[in-house]
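ok trying again, last paste got cut off:
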Amino acid sequence: MKQQLISAVQSERQAVFTALEGIDDATLTMAPVCGTWTAKEVLAHLAAVDTAVLGVLRQARAGDAVTWAWDSATDGDSWNQSEVDRRRHRSIAQVREEIAETHRTILAEVESWPAESGPFGPDSWDAEKSPIGWLPAHDREHTALLLKLRGG
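nice, full thing came through this time. structure:
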């Protein structure tokens, strides 16, 4: 189950980047794909989510209670927007690099846990029960939005 979850996380993240191949920076920064968000803002959102996931994995590693970054926000939308706004001044290349680096770190952290007992106990690798089981579906949802830039 562990390898299945990891493979799904890797595959869906690759699909995000594949959806952007060949699209120029002007389109990525100007064409809305998710409400008023552009592709760059969707990528900034993914970077923020990755940072939150990494924080949760590190809490689990330390044996601390797991709290999500957005738990202290008034709602998920305000947390999302504040995190996107924090990355607004960055170039697309910088946002993509943040996503790539954080994603590599997440995968390394997850890989380091034994298959029989992950960061969240016995359900760590169960896509339905794991606190990170939603990651592949989340990327898939955003890939579908990014594909709008291709008319797909």
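cool. The domain at 2-150 is CATH 1.20.120.450 (Four Helix Bundle (Hemerythrin (Met), subunit A)). The first strand starts at residue 32 and ends at 34.
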